[in-house]
TrEMBL record:
The keyword Zinc does not apply. Keywords: Hydrolase. The keyword Aminoacyl-tRNA synthetase does not apply. It comes from Flexibacter flexilis DSM 6793. Signal peptide: none annotated. Residues 3-69 form the Protein YjdM C-terminal domain. It comes from the Bacteria. This is Phosphonoacetate hydrolase. One of its GO terms (molecular function) is hydrolase activity.
C-alpha cells in the first residue's frame, strides 16, 4: 500500500509533513494552522490517512492536506 501526500510524494513511517491548509479539529474548537510541522508520522490501514502528534495530542490527518518536508 502506497501513501502519498497532496503533491503525490511517497510518505513513509517517521517522515515529517507540513499542513497546507487551516484545519478545524472535530469535537473541539481548536484549529491546526497552515504551516504546522507534524514530525514522526505513523501510517494507518487507510492510504488516505496518517497519524501524528499535534501539540501533544495524537491525531489522524488526511493526506490531501499534508506536504512532505
Amino acid at each position: 500500500m502506497e501513501v502519498r501526500d497532496s503533491n503525490g510524494t511517497l510518505l513513509q513511517e517517521g517522515d515529517s509533513v507540513h499542513v497546507i491548509k487551516d484545519l478545524k479539529v472535530k469535537g473541539s474548537s481548536a484549529v491546526i494552522k497552515r504551516g504546522k510541522v507534524v514530525k514522526n508520522i505513523s501510517l494507518t490501514n487507510n492510504p488516505e490517512e496518517v497519524e501524528g502528534r499535534v501539540d501533544k495530542v495524537q491525531m489522524v490527518l488526511k493526506t490531501c492536506f499534508l506536504k512532505k518536508v
